[in-house]
Amino acid sequence: MKSFTEYLWFDTQYRREMIHITDTVRNIVDKSEVQEGFVLVSAMHITAAVYVNDNESGLIEDIWEWLEGLAPYQDDYKHHMTGEDNGDAHLKNLIMHHQVIVPITEGDLDLGPWQRVFYAEFDGGRRKRVVVKVIGE
Amino acid sequence: MKSFTEYLWFDTQYRREMIHITDTVRNIVDKSEVQEGFVLVSAMHITAAVYVNDNESGLIEDIWEWLEGLAPYQDDYKHHMTGEDNGDAHLKNLIMHHQVIVPITEGDLDLGPWQRVFYAEFDGGRRKRVVVKVIGE
Amino acid sequence: MKSFTEYLWFDTQYRREMIHITDTVRNIVDKSEVQEGFVLVSAMHITAAVYVNDNESGLIEDIWEWLEGLAPYQDDYKHHMTGEDNGDAHLKNLIMHHQVIVPITEGDLDLGPWQRVFYAEFDGGRRKRVVVKVIGE
Lengths: 137, 137, 137
Fold this sequence. Notes:
The structure is a homotrimer. The first copy, chain A, is of the alpha+beta class.
């Protein structure tokens, strides 16, 4: 069994942002030389997500509006008694999930035709990290 | 390490459907001859989900009603400016998640007594695919 | 490739409870002697979740209130025609997801500084189980 680990760093200008990372993940799989296996792409923070969906700008706007409805920014989260103001970011993380596994087949990401991997930042403007870990043969 | 990959194809008659696939996944694990490992069951589309829950028809009706409340079909998604009408299906995919890992122990799916694997179609009537990938020994 | 499997049992006093299990998972990884790989932490029930987020009591209260809004306890779920009263627990499981993968790097859990692993019980007062399965080398 082979394994290969790399960390991606993000330092977004805005509080909320979606960053398309499919090609970055593919390059790491190339470097790993794994032909058959799994690559885990996992946010190392509790106020960000990693998800797979369409790279279409209208849909991305829809996702933001929808997430804001289900897990709104508001003042009165109990979490804010710690001095934080990012309670909504924790809840958005829980809906969207913080990780995906992409299967690797014949050395490439085994994704469907429209599947793309995204990092979703819910509390940006600080340096944050994603672990990309490949295992296989 | 062994690996084994198979693709399931679905061509649902209806737009929305839940399809029970536990036995199909178990058969693929049998064929893989893996005794200890993981099987990833992952939709290759952004308008479908794979999830684990109860095979109980009342609950399945509850899930549909609940999903429609949280991610409703509606005309005015921005994604629809591309000509699509399936914005809700993308959002339903995000709530339900598109993949599960089932552990394999002693050559069988290591599921709890009521856990069953389902494919959830949110935009059917076209041919769609799920990748089932086993890794282990 | 090595593999190592252990089961955690929970018998909560209350119907709903969050139980912090990061140290328990780390101990299992230690015992597995895997240096590089994945550990899957997966509820074996359809009315419980495993998730990664902050170990902060205010946030945990926020999560409960938020979950109750999105997947409320109510009498009239169709699932209750089977005699059950836990329809909400199934839906809470679907939002929160029943499993996480934690990467293992240099023999330890490769988590971010604030990431902690939790078992979330939505229908307790009975004995329930989580499978922890390590694969790697």
